[in-house]
Amino acid sequence: MSTLAGTPVLRPPADAAALDADIVAEIAGALSGGAADVDSGTRRRAEYSSDASVYRVAPRAVVFPRTAEDIVAVMRIARSHQLPVTMRGAGTSIAGNAIGPGIVLDTSRHYNRILSLDPEARTAVVQPGVLLAAIQKAGAPHGLRFGPDPSTWTRCTIGGSIGNNACGPHALAWGRSADQVIDLDVVDGTGRRFTASTGLDEFPELRDIVHGGLATIRREFGTFGRQVSGYSLEHLLPERKENLARMLAGTEGTLCVILQATIRLVPVPTAPHLVVLGYPDMFEAADDVVNLLPLKPLAIEGMDSRLVDVVRQHKGDGAVPELPTGAGWMMVEVGGVDEADARERAHQLAEASASDEVAVFPPGPDATAMWRIRADGAGLGGRTPAGEQAWPNWEDAAVPPARLGEYLRRFDALMKEYRLDGLMYGHFGDGCTHIRIDFPLDRDPQVMRDFMERAADLVATYGGSLSGEHGDGRARSELLPRMYSADAIDLFRRVKGVFDPDSLLNPGVLVDPDPIDEHVRRPNAGPVPASGGFSFESDHGDFSKAVHRCMGVGKCRADMRAAGGFMCPSYQASKDEKDSTRARARVLEEMIRGTLVDGGWDAPEVADALDLCLSCKACSSDCPAGIDMAQYKSEVLYHKHKGRVRPISHYSLGWLPRWLRLVGIAPAAVNAIMKVPGVQQAIIRGGGMDRRRRMPGFAPQQFGRWLKRDGRRRSHDFFTDVDWVASVGGRAGAATGMLPVDAAGSDARRGAVAARRAGVRTPVVLWTDSFSNGIAPEIPRAAVAVLEDAGYEVVLPPDNACCGLTWITTGQLDGAKSRLEDLLGKLGPFAARGIPILGLEPSCTAVLRSDLLHLLPNDPRSQVVADHVFTLSELLSAPAPLGPRPDWQLPDLHGTTAVVQPHCHQYSVIGFAPDRALLKRAGVEFTELAGCCGLAGNFGMEKGHYETSVAVAENALLPALREADQSCGGDYVYLADGFSCRTQADNLAGKDGRALAQLLADGLHLRY
What we know:
40% of the residues lie in helices and 12% in strands.
């Protein structure tokens, strides 16, 4: 038994032991990178124990090859010790075919180059670990791309795509991955290395097998485009030129290992237009496919309206373009010789459809948004509308397109019979559907088996394929006899014998398969009820369910900066799986299971996995599954250190607001002491900080003291008297009926209406956080000036109110709750009376919009305050009456150039769109950075994090500052509301940052 938060978790059967040290040493000696490229440690094995499927198989070691010779050497050693070998690209396999019980070879880390690209021949020679995104980027200047585009194209590898015969939306136009393969350099399970192309002269035994099974192959294989299940033996037919390369595509690493591939590229379509058609339901949408196929569109995608509802719920209405009326849609992309031709084809297709509900999106943000929804389907579908976890095992079945509507109706009836739910989408033009289903794996895993057997029989009835693009893996291989005859299954076994007679390559998949309900990871992970820390109310109060949100789709490994994404800065800096959000979730899952990782909250593997998490919260926004690793890290630190002495940085940095209050007593004296040689370095070393860091200077006069000493500020402009607040609150909140403090849902706009009607300025509470008050008081002073100029009555709370941010990031959640309860007492009365609250520091503002609700969910004041907290850009952009006075104008900032660093927490929790729009309206010419600055609060200051912090800064911030220095000669503004973001730029580039309030106040020529 292991115990987490007082909840016993039963141990499942033990895993195979790590690889013996002498074998590890033998492998290390054979690798060009030596011992650094083989890892049999517990944490690493935990990270690679699962992929994007429901399965878990812990490897005995993970190897990161750098050359083809490395792979051949590992294969030789594996054969000599009878060790299984499984190839892995990005680990995004949905069927469990990228995990294995022996050695896992990860080609994505080092063996990932494009060796050549020939624009005239439209071909490329690539190593298996190269990302599809890299191939698309390399081909783009030549107007070329790799045709198939699975939803994971931003992070999946070409080796994995070929191994699974990946397709994606545009397979309708360009075919499957197998159709793009010209030849493959491979090594099989016998150690034989060869180039597979056309012809079987070198494989007489295989030719004999094919000739003996011609009738079976011609009858059962290649019957429609998305028949991906099993081995695609139709490619070996004489009439298909005995194309061994194409047959090996889709064999899921069970016959050979790819060392190099020559692939075909296709022209990028010109000005593709997206036609969105609305239908009463998904069945009628599917019925209409046959009417659209004759027009040869590039893609036909189906999407359930409930999937779109999930996007609106998590991302807001602005994330979804205005769509035609319907409960289901088809997205149909058409191309043309030019934009006019594409537009005409789009209208022709709309006319040919059976739908009267049509929208046409030309290339642009609306079309991009629709494709983003579709690409995130696997993650978004990970929860049903009721909030239940949904799983991918019956993920990508396909039937001939003409029978799709009929199949879906019967499939829907089967789902209802089992009382299961899921969000439907898919490649309707190819007859392929995707759905995640809420199998009760944590309560009754037998339901999954019963349902899948029935579903397999249903697909076979329609002449379909159990897999339409992801391969069979552990998810469906056992069910192949329900789709194929005994003769066909025997052909699979005999072909396997030619290439891998000892069954060392990806055992348990396709031939002699594991049962579909063996190695399922969820049943062996018990509940971990919320206990003292975060509430995890979105996961039924269960930390285990929260962690198991991660389905392994691997978006945290994708470089999303070009699309404005921030996740995951540590992985982008290191390119090591351990630094991805997914790997951290896997280690936490293993902690809950108590097998590989058996030390509970104290496990060193957990500490190692979470150490380089910046707590940027980007995953909470960018991960389609809704993972919040910053929250999980805080929870782990809370339980690990509760009642114990903590790391020194938890006191030095975690209690920073407390120290700032003390400094405020005599800041000049403190600053003088800090200038004494050796004092600052002694504090840095003693406080657990990196010696290469500099501490920021303390304000000679904190904001609170400035207010008291400035004679003008003692005027009626500032009221901190509770009776006056109640008076203004009475006028401002008249429309709300003077809601009591514990009432929820009061409306800041109604309060503003009442204030205007009462003949007073709209009151705004200026909430000054600890950083702004003690280190950068010029920012709240500038905010006061701008707010007053815009027609607001600036109100101050009776005393400083700390949100507990630094306590949260260091896992001191009891202390954070105490400070938040104090804050609610100070800010709650204003919010309850409809008075908006302005936050200046993005990370602190985000606490009130997010963490507050998860730490104090049962306090009704939490939601009230969260609803009334605004950023400066939100307030100044709001319509009347919440916005500024009607005649107020933004300053004219034309001619101002800026590099803008959105704070991670603002991006993730609040959103940066109001700031972006405000800067554009003001005329600022700016470069908006995507990605974390790298300091991330206490993270970058702590000893042991400096290198990662700088590497993250090199992702976006530092290159942008260098480029601006060169192009602008230093005459630009580095705009960053976040204290961390300004500190990082100052520490690493010597660049002072400005906040939005300062930029506006300066532009308005206001004194502050």
